[in-house]
Write a structure and sequence with these properties.
heterodimer, A: mainly alpha, 3% strand, B: alpha/beta, Rossmann fold, Alpha-Beta Plaits, 6-stranded mixed beta sheet, 39% helix, elongated
Chain lengths: 272, 332
């Protein structure tokens, strides 16, 4: 038995010299793998955030659908692209919740003391979130198809709408990353998010058209980013995309990332 | 690797290290010199600055002023070099509770630069060596406190660090788990890794550390071998409570008559803590009190505690400060 060994519980453990540090891509993909494992081990979290939109979809379609859109079947054509937007925007908060709970539990201390590319935990978590968004989107679109959603834009239109929603969701995630580092508990990240997300998604054209609202509200709702995203998502899914809405969403996403990402990364690097 | 390590005599050197959080001076001029290949203990109550010291040394916090050098690298200007050579096991098991034991270790192995295949092999090897093979496929949230602590330390040994930092490695553990952790620390140190650990227990520092520093309010108030420290307190102590608190002065003079001196400051009027050299001296004190008709409600013989050390060094009890830096960092 060599001197280079740890003996514990009757077993022998060779000491291991330090290897080359992991590459940035290797670290990021490993941390994305961790995010996937969390979805696998805690699927309830995903269920938790999709049950509300599923309820909303069914509720609005069958109870209000006739009044809002002529028939439930006509209304689901209008509602579903918007419900997709609302669902994914609500899930973005989990990026901040996860980060906050990692910080509270001391996991980020370990990550930050490791010799790796330091933004890897954040980028890895975002990559994992893409999978989370995809699963939730598939659930919502699947439900829509079952209850009569027939997108005129076809598979391509739906995929493009989904891609656009993902772009906006990743941008919004950066805002929750900042919140996740600022507030004390994962619960308060959640609470804060509802204060912003409830008005943001309800004061939009997800459930009803702009033309039904009083003039002053219409002026506000028209400038809500969620309204633009919903318009773009509807246009793409139904084969009548409006370039202005798509470009507006892309520009807004870029602006959010350009402002929030450097702040988030600086806060992450900085001592806590 | 070994010859280089042997040449380098000091693993850690800090000079007048200061760290402030707002108005709180968490570190108020800490000077430490820790030799390579030793186990060094930092002893102090909650909020004394133990965790802050470790966080500065592991590059998680930047010092407000002063300098800290770990393995020849400045912790601020050469943080990446420090990170390549040290491992940290924080105060709270820094593992992902949602993942299994095996997955947690594979994760850290990958982040330390091992290939997927090597990572899986190393994780299995570590789980076996730490007595966790049976729990490899279980989520860490189902682990006991002792198991969590062991997997946390295992994660720090994925590749062998030159310095291992352990922040209160046994706090909250039952005696059996504590002994297992102590054995692990001894084994790690026997392989040549320098270990810096913090603790609130004098006994722990005494069992593990060759040298230790007592810290209070962000300052080192005593430094030396555990023997040095204990002889400043008395190797054993006799604790008792008077049945009648008004007999305090009488009791004091009886003890002085038997031992000369040795009464440590007390937390309450009826309580006494007396330095004694051996059981005979303790018996003499108790017999003399009985002869003088000074009844006691209880008595106990014990090794000196952190409280006794603090009495001896500062003349006041070790206080817990809930608004301390340690508490704040956890919340921050």
């Amino acid at each position: 038995m060599s001197a280079d060994a740890i003996h514990s519980g009757g077993e022998t453990l060779a000491m291991r010299p330090r290897t080359q540090p992991v590459s940035a891509l290797g670290a990021t993909s490993t941390l994305a793998w961790r995010a996937l494992l969390k979805i696998k081990h805690v699927p309830f979290q995903l269920f938790d955030v999709t049950i509300t939109p599923i309820m909303f979809t069914l509720l609005f379609t069958y109870i209000f659908g006739g009044a809002l859109g002529g028939t439930p079947r006509q209304y689901i054509q209008f509602l579903l692209p918007g419900i997709l937007v609302q669902t994914i925007i609500f899930i973005t908060v989990y990026t901040g919740v996860g980060l906050n709970s990692d910080i509270q539990k001391g996991l980020y201390d370990r990550f930050r003391s490791l010799p790796m590319w330091q933004p890897a935990p954040i980028i890895g978590a975002l990559a994992g979130d893409l999978i989370r968004y995809s699963i939730a989107s598939a659930l919502i679109i699947g439900l829509g198809l079952i209850i009569g959603f027939r997108p005129a834009g076809g598979v391509v239109g739906v995929l493009l709408a989904f891609a656009l929603v993902l772009v906006f969701a990743v941008a919004v995630s950066w805002i929750w990353i900042i919140f996740g580092m600022k507030v004390k508990t994962p619960e308060s990240v959640m609470t804060t998010s509802f204060v912003f997300l409830m008005p943001l998604t309800f004061a939009s054209n997800i459930f009803v058209g702009l033309e039904t609202m009083p003039g002053w509200l219409r002026a506000v709702v028209r400038h809500n980013p969620v309204t633009h995203l919903t318009n773009a998502s509807r246009g793409l899914m139904h084969g009548t995309p409006a370039a202005s809405d798509v470009l507006w969403v892309l520009a807004a996403s870029a602006a959010i990332v350009l402002v929030a990402a450097p702040i988030a990364l600086r806060m992450y690097h900085k001592e806590r | 690797m070994l010859p280089r390590r042997a040449r380098m005599t000091n693993a850690i050197e800090t000079t007048n290290l200061v760290k402030t959080f707002g108005k709180t001076r968490a570190l108020d001029g800490v000077d430490l010199t820790i030799r390579s290949g030793t186990v060094y203990g930092i002893l102090g109550p909650n909020g004394a600055g133990k965790t802050t010291t470790i966080r500065v040394l592991t590059t998680l916090l930047k010092p407000t002023s002063g300098r800290a050098v770990v393995l020849g690298h400045d912790v601020v200007s050469e943080a990446a070099s420090v990170r390549r050579k040290v491992s940290l096991t924080g105060q709270y098991a820094s593992v992902d509770e949602d993942l299994t034991g095996q997955e947690n270790l594979v994760l850290v192995c990958r982040l330390m630069g091992l290939s997927w295949a090597d990572a899986r092999a190393r994780a299995t090897e570590l789980l076996g060596a730490f007595g966790l093979a049976d729990a490899a496929g279980r989520q860490v949230r189902t682990f006991s406190g002792g198991m969590r602590r062991r997997i946390d330390i295992a994660a720090s040994l994925v590749t062998t660090p030159e310095v291992l930092f352990l922040d209160e490695p046994t706090s909250g553990l039952d005696p059996r788990s504590r002994n297992q952790v102590w054995d692990l620390v001894r084994q790690i140190a026997a392989e040549g890794t320098t270990v810096l650990l913090t603790t609130q227990y004098l006994e722990e520092a005494d069992r593990l550390a060759e040298r230790l520093a007592v810290i209070d309010h962000g300052r080192v108030i005593a430094e030396g071998t555990s023997h040095d420290l204990k002889s400043s307190v008395g190797s054993n102590t006799l604790h008792f409570h008077l049945a009648k608190a008004e007999q305090r002065d009488a009791a004091q003079s009886v003890i002085s008559g038997v031992l000369g001196n040795g009464v440590l400051p007390a937390t309450e009027p009826s309580a006494f803590t007396v330095k004694v050299t051996d059981a005979g001296a303790a018996a003499n004190v108790l017999a003399a009190l009985a002869r003088a008709n000074i009844p006691l409600t209880d008595f106990a013989l014990g090794a000196p505690s952190l409280d006794d050390v603090f009495f001896a060094l500062t003349g006041r009890p070790a206080e817990d400060k809930p608004k301390s830096d340690d508490a704040k960092e956890v919340a921050a």
